[in-house]
UniProtKB/TrEMBL annotation:
Gene Ontology, cellular component aspect: cytosol
The keyword Oxidoreductase is assigned to this record: no
Species lineage: Bacteria, Pseudomonadati, Pseudomonadota, Betaproteobacteria, Burkholderiales
Molecular function per GO: DNA binding; DNA-binding transcription factor activity
Spans through the membrane: none
Domain HTH lysR-type: 1-60
Domain of life from the UniProt record: Bacteria
Signal peptide per UniProt: none
Similarity comment text for this entry: Belongs to the LysR transcriptional regulatory family.
Organism, as annotated: Alicycliphilus denitrificans (strain DSM 14773 / CIP 107495 / K601)
Name of the protein this chain belongs to: Transcriptional regulator, LysR family
Keywords of the record: DNA-binding, Transcription, Transcription regulation
């Protein structure tokens, strides 16, 4: 049995007016079409709903009983549809973004502030995690897009580079006096370097740069969190080697010195999206804000943050 809500509405409208011509006009359809729809409903139910004569139309006893049930069914359908639409509206205002922590810290606050101004009560979820975890969340539909620093090789994803940032050194205490404003990779071999762990993309970039020189990169210390690195650098226990964007949260600390690595690696930063499916309007707006924010960073920090290649 396949009975559509529209058929029930036709039945209830006719049960109210008991006039095929008026009901057809009210429903913006022809009288023959209405008659056929009622006959189809009667056949589906296996019951006559109306007694028709040349002069009048009357509900049958079964039709009267079923009209009450139909009103309840249509009412519940309308209420359920409204709940679904309300949920869809809430879902349309939700966005999930997967991002490396360093990018989330520098880029996403401005992006989310812009979304707050543009949309009423947007629901924003930020997954700040490793590059691999960002990609996995995107593939699992837990995020609308990802901010990553390595272009994924997955065939279902696409990567749009939005900027590149250079690797730099950050020092304090006695090491602050020993470092020059401009250093080279060969100068760093014997220094007590502090880096992210092997799982990070930052470590992959710097390790690859040394492997090209036939040298294995062996930092003195490795940490998962930039904040931890900052604490050790502040105590003079080592020199941080990180991408500039990852270093930005530490630049406000007193007594630190920033040095460039003239021949150091350059990290790519981009937006990763799924190839299949259209992004929501909120996701599109967020990606536009990411590009505007990264453009602002390039303008504010020229030489450190570079345009896409």
């Amino acid at each position: 049995m396949n009975i559509a809500p529209r058929q029930l509405r036709m039945f209830l409208a006719l049960a109210e007016s008991l006039n095929f011509s008026k009901t057809a006009e009210q429903l913006f359809m022809t009288q023959p079409s209405l008659s056929k729809a009622i006959r189809d409903l009667e056949e589906a139910l296996g019951l006559p709903l109306f007694e028709r004569t040349t002069r009048s139309v009357q509900l049958t006893a079964s039709g009267s009983r079923l009209a009450a049930i139909a009103r309840a069914v249509v009412g519940e359908y309308d209420a359920g549809l409204q709940r679904m639409l309300s949920s869809a509206e809430r879902e349309a205002r939700h966005i999930g973004i997967a991002s490396l922590p360093s990018l989330a810290h520098v880029i996403l606050p401005q992006v989310c502030a812009a979304l707050e101004r543009r949309y009423h009560l947007p629901q924003i979820t930020v997954h700040d995690c490793s590059n691999d975890a960002c990609i996995q969340r995107l593939l699992n539909y837990q995020a609308d897009f990802a901010l990553a620093s390595v272009a994924p090789s997955h065939p279902d994803l696409k990567y749009e580079e939005v900027l590149r940032d250079r690797f730099v050194l950050l020092s304090c205490g006695p090491w602050r006096q020993r470092l020059k404003p401009t250093m080279h990779l060969d100068d760093l071999v014997d220094l007590p370097l502090i880096s992210m762990t092997d799982a990070s993309t930052a470590m992959r970039y710097i390790s690859a740069a040394y492997l090209q020189r036939g040298v294995e990169f062996r930092p003195k210390m490795q940490f998962d969190q930039v904040g931890t690195i900052a604490g050790f650098v502040k105590k003079g226990l080592g020199i941080a080697v990180l991408p500039y964007l990852g270093m930005m949260p530490m630049l406000s600390l007193r007594g630190l010195r920033l040095s460039e690595i003239a021949d150091g690696p350059v990290r790519s930063v981009g937006i990763v999206t799924r190839r299949v499916g259209a992004p929501t309007s909120v996701a599109l707006a967020a990606m536009e804000e990411v590009k505007a924010t990264t453009q602002g960073l390039m303008n504010k920090h020229p030489g450190w943050i570079l345009p896409p290649s």
